[in-house]
Write a structure and sequence with these properties.
- Helix content is about 45%, strand content about 15%.
- It has helices spanning about 5-15, 35-45, 65-75, 80-90, 105-110, 115-120, 140-145, 160-170, 195-205, 220-225, 235-245, 250-260, and strands at about 20-25, 50-55, 100-105, 125-130, 150-155, 155, 175-180, 210-215, 230-235.
- Helix 6 runs parallel beside helix 7 (about 140-145).
- The longest helix is centred in the C-terminal third of the chain and has 13 residues, at about 250-260.
Length: about 260
């Protein structure tokens, strides 16, 4: 089955506009599953090109305190993998934004991975990013995602060996997620200087778009990574607004944040 190509189209549109694509993250179900579609649409109005829709997990080891707390709230609100897929379908009915399912492997394996891929595609999801799936052990999951027309997004970090980068280039489609620093997610004041060198190493291996994440929280960061990458991923800065503003003004606040990040007046 062919992939939806929405991810490629979003990067192409950003490139034509001479700007980096803006990828924003939401933990599905925080503050409540019924609220997530409206939050996603607010981000889209603010200029987000791609949404990473996070599956809440009880042990999110790669995430900092903001997203850990969001996962805890979402789980307490009753968010399951099934509910995340329903949320994605609700967003898709009202949005042309590309959607990437962002998860740890355990919830997806518990759901049944082939079933997950089938149901994700049916819900309008375009790609899957599994934070703790080792690329060296990814052949079978990659085949399942390919069968169901889903893009495969893998992480590359400053500590990645050449062999690992070769595999990331081999298995990825859609884009490569370039981790700006080691450690956990979270907003930072500056972008790590090591990420530009990592982007160059990846450029030598793949023509796929490169999107830099971990620590991106300001318009200046988006502009900075746009010099050498095709997109910027903003997660904790978005979820911090959700954490602090779970009120009737939340959608407006998210749209305003996204407009600041994207440069939309």
């Amino acid at each position: 089955m062919e992939s939806s190509e929405r991810i490629a189209q979003r990067f192409a549109a950003a490139r034509a506009a001479r700007r980096p694509a803006l990828i924003t993250y939401l933990t599905a179900g925080d503050p409540h599953p019924d609220r997530t579609p409206a939050l996603a649409l607010a981000l889209e109005r603010g200029g987000a090109d791609i949404l990473e829709l996070g599956v809440p997990f009880s042990d999110p080891i790669a995430d900092g305190p903001v997203i850990q707390a969001a996962s805890d709230r979402a789980l307490k609100a009753g968010t399951t993998v099934e509910r995340v897929l329903e949320i994605a379908a609700g967003i898709r009915r009202r949005s042309g934004m590309a959607i990437v399912l962002f998860s740890y492997i355990n919830p997806l394996m518990h759901y049944g991975f082939d079933r997950l891929c089938r149901d994700a595609r049916a819900a309008g999801i375009d790609g899957v990013l599994i934070t703790d799936l080792s690329v060296e052990e990814a052949e079978e999951p990659v085949q399942a995602m390919q069968r169901h027309g889903l893009d495969r997004i893998f992480l590359a970090a400053p500590t990645s060996t050449d062999r690992r980068l070769d595999l990331v280039a081999q298995y990825s489609s859609g884009f490569v997620y370039v981790v700006s620093r080691t450690g956990v997610t979270g907003a930072r004041d500056t972008v790590s200087q090591s990420v530009e060198a990592l982007a160059r190493r990846l450029r030598a291996r793949t023509a796929l778009p490169l999107a830099v994440g971990f620590g991106i929280s300001k318009r200046a960061h988006v502009e900075e990574v746009g010099r050498y990458a095709d997109g910027a991923v903003v997660g904790s800065a978005v979820m911090r607004v959700v954490n602090e503003s779970a009120d009737e003004e939340l959608e407006a606040k998210l749209e305003r944040l996204c407009r600041e990040l994207s440069g939309i007046a």
